[in-house]
Design goal:
The protein is of the alpha/beta class and 676 residues long. The chain has three domains: 250 residues, 2-enoyl-CoA Hydratase, Chain A, domain 1 (Alpha-Beta Complex); 190 residues, NAD(P)-binding Rossmann-like Domain (Rossmann fold, 3-Layer(aba) Sandwich), CATH 3.40.50.720; 206 residues, N-(1-d-carboxylethyl)-l-norvaline Dehydrogenase, domain 2 (Orthogonal Bundle). It has 28 helices and 18 strands. The strands form four sheets. It has an eight-stranded mixed beta sheet with strand order 11-10-9-12-13-14-15-16, with helices on both faces. Helix 15 links the parallel strand 12 and strand 13. The model has no long low-confidence stretch (mean pLDDT 96). The chain binds 1,4-dihydronicotinamide adenine dinucleotide. The site of 1,4-dihydronicotinamide adenine dinucleotide (NAI) has 23 residues, from helix 12 and helix 15.
């Protein structure tokens, strides 16, 4: 036995917990001491060389207990016998750092590698920022680390990261390499000792720094990553010390905590307490009713998931347009090289279209995406009820309507649930899975399972106006309208919130989605609206003037060639000033901090109410919905996480003031259950 193969064996993914770290040091010590061993191969399982740090250890004392990963890596790098990594499955984060500290690396072509730490608000903290640039150059190293991207070994075959990429089990090739390098003078220079040109490093880092997006600049990990890479021009030990210092600084930072919270919350969200033990019904064929914006998006993602899809319309032209949109979608993905022509063809071959309701009988699940009108939806569900087979799951994609009122139109309300997709439905990951009063547990379980099959992030919700997301978003948007009346301009509000990291401000969003949707809903609610309610009519007045948003060239903002003017125009300002005057408000400018705080407080108050009402099963589900569906900055963790970071007494006091200013119909929620 001239080559010792050390097998990492910590299922399922060889996460580098304390026990595995101890094992590695002992195994290397033993192999080094054994005179019959000439070289060492470090190998994992078919599933994983190593997926990196143990996430459950992150931030706990065990993570920093010796041998810490850094000590293990030094042991590997300084081993007097050549160590070669045989990479299969995944080598991510600390797993890739381990491989880079070996003297050589052989990877199986389909292995996936990457340093995804940035996604958790961290940087690689165990030599990754120092070694990757030495192996693949600063540019590629930064591209990979800034994106936190995972790539196939094959796609990096010529990058310098690997000594060989092979199509079979890499242990044999790795052993061969170790054997060859055991000859005196044959081993290459250890990666740690390879020098980099300081001026070039500096220039390349500066280029990447200049290209950071505003949202990246708000997150300290991006600048820290660039600082760490800049240090790789220093001798290795100094650079590694700098990396470590930056890493430890980030570890307990609020953004890193928030990102860990989101990571855990997303995993937790797809657990369904109400359907514990209920087996989902099998779904192979999905019928989508309505081939509009949402219907075609849903059809595309069901085709991508390998399901048979039947698209049903009432209108032949609408059906043809829907079908053309699906075809165009696949064509553009093939053209962009994101999908092979063969796969696109197979996907489209699974699509059939019809104008005939009896065809619904073949579906295991029906997803309705027709106009947002209760009368229309009830009529559609009566028809679905007539034609769908017994046991089929019947879903509505309604944004606001009462699931029970829709379910009552059928003879089988137990089979009906809401599946609220977000637009564009083939892109957005969030899916609200809405439970009606009579929805059966296995129907809910089917909704969750179907969501996962469609590669969505399904979040269970109770049946209440707006479910989780739109209900909180409405409270937020209303508060932003109050701020207009109080003294802010739309651009002040939008700038403050994007400055905090929101993908877009509420008024830019309103213009983008079209003001007429909200206008129609406001008109429908007008008859029942309490006259004592604080109601800002700016949006209605804009719509009356034909300013429906981006699509008409003007809404809150004016647009030329699709680009918004930097501020609002005189017409809008006048409408806002009139609204302030009618309410007897002397307009006072609002600063960015006040705007953000008011917007967040409105969200938190609504979150506390809907959690108390059981609309959300867990507080963390609310954070998942806002981050995934509404552009809430992920590194702020969501409204609940944000509220938990605040001083409780101040929060409660500010909430009182906010609710008082919001007027009739607003009540302060008890934050206790939500935040404890
Ligand atoms: P859309 O107007 O683009 O499409 C609706 C389609 O349904 C049209 O093609 C129409 O011909 C068809 N249709 C109407 N009545 C029908 C009937 N009786 N039988 C068969 N087909 C019929 O509407 P969109 O935007 O796709 O919205 C659909 C649903 O999705 C609505 O309930 C909406 O609230 C909801 N939704 C919309 C989102 C969006 O951003 N557009 C986001 C999430 C949900």
């Amino acid at each position: 036995m001239d080559i010792a193969v050390i097998r990492l064996d910590h299922p399922p993914v060889n996460s580098l917990n304390l026990a595995l770290r101890r094992f590695m040091v002992e195994a290397i010590d033993a192999a080094e001491a054994n005179p019959s061993v000439r070289g060492i191969v470090l190998a994992g399982s078919a599933k994983a060389f190593s997926a990196g740090a143990d996430v459950s250890e992150l931030g706990t004392p065990a993570q920093l207990q010796e041998p810490i990963l850094l000590s293990v890596l030094a042991r590997v790098a300084h081993c007097r016998k050549p160590v070669v990594a045989a990479i299969t499955g995944v080598a991510l984060g600390g797993g890739l750092e381990l491989a880079m500290n070996c003297h050589g690396r052989v990877a199986q072509a389909d292995a996936k590698v990457g340093l995804p730490e940035i996604q958790l608000g961290l940087i690689p903290g165990s030599t990754g920022t120092q070694l990757l640039p030495r192996l693949v150059g600063v540019d590629l190293a930064l591209d990979l680390m800034l994106a936190g991207q995972t790539r196939s070994a094959q796609s990096l075959a010529s990058s310098g990261l690997f000594d060989a990429v092979v199509s079979t089990d890499p242990v044999a090739a790795a052993s061969e390499l170790a054997r060859r390098w055991a000859e005196p003078g044959a081993a290459p220079l250890p990666v740690r000792q390879r020098p980099l040109d300081a001026a070039r490093v500096q220039a390349q880092v500066a280029e990447h720094r200049a290209r950071l997006t505003p949202r990246q600049r708000l997150q300290p990990a991006y600048a820290a990553l660039l600082d760490a890479v800049q240090a790789c021009a220093l001798p290795f030990e100094q650079g590694a010390a700098r990396e470590r210092e930056l890493f430890l600084g980030l570890l307990s930072s609020t953004p890193a905590q928030a990102l860990r919270h989101q990571f855990k919350a997303e995993r937790e969200a797809s657990r369904l307490p109400q359907a514990e033990g209920a087996a989902p019904r099998a779904v192979q064929t999905v019928a989508v009713v309505g081939a509009g914006t949402m219907g075609t998006g849903i059809a595309i993602c069901a085709l991508d998931a390998g399901l048979q899809v039947l698209l049903l319309e009432q209108d032949a032209d609408a059906l043809a347009r829907g079908q053309a949109r699906v075809a165009e979608h696949f064509r553009s993905r093939v053209a962009a090289g994101k999908l092979s022509a063969a796969v696109a063809e197979q996907a489209q071959a699974r699509l059939s279209t019809t104008l005939n309701w009896p065809a619904l009988a073949q579906a295991d699940a029906v997803i309705e995406a027709v106009y947002e009108d209760l009368g229309v939806k009830r009529e559609v569900f009566q028809r679905i009820d007539r034609h769908a087979r017994a046991g089929a799951v019947l879903a509505t994609n309604t944004s606001y309507l009462d699931i029970d009122a829709i379910a009552q139109a059928t003879t089988r309300p137990q089979d009906v649930l809401g599946l609220h997709f977000f637009s564009p439905a083939n892109v957005m990951k969030l899916l609200e899975v809405v439970r009606g009063a009579q929805t059966a547990p296995d129907v809910l379980a089917t909704g969750m399972a179907l969501g996962k099959a469609l590669k969505k992030l399904p979040v269970p919700c109770g049946n209440a106006f707006g479910f989780i997301g739109n209900r909180i978003y409405n409270a937020y948007r209303r508060q932003c309208e109050f701020m207009l009346e109080d003294g802010a301009w739309p651009e002040d509000v939008d700038r403050a919130l994007t400055g905090m990291g929101f993908a877009m401000g509420p008024f830019a969003v309103a213009d983008l989605s079209g003001l007429d949707i909200a206008w129609r809903m406001r008109q429908a609610q007008a008859a029942t609206r309490d006259p004592r309610e604080r109601y800002v009519d700016v949006l209605d007045r804009l719509c009356e003037q034909g300013r429906l948003g981006r699509k008409t060239g003007a809404g809150y903002y004016t647009y030329t060639d699709g680009r918004a003017a930097p501020g609002t125009d005189a017409v809008v300002r006048q409408l806002i000033e009139q609204a302030s005057a009618r309410r007897g408000i002397t307009r006072q400018p609002l600063d960015a901090a006040t705007i953000c705080r008011r917007a967040l407080l409105a969200m938190v108050n609504e979150a506390a109410w809907l959690y108390a009402e059981g609309v959300a099963a867990r507080p963390s589900d609310i954070d998942v919905v806002l981050v995934q569906g509404y552009g809430f900055p992920r590194w702020e963790g969501g409204p609940v996480f944000w509220a938990r970071q605040q001083d409780r007494a101040t929060l409660q006091r500010d909430l009182q003031a906010l609710v008082a200013a919001s007027g009739h119909g607003h009540r302060v929620a008890d934050l206790g259950p939500l935040l404890d």
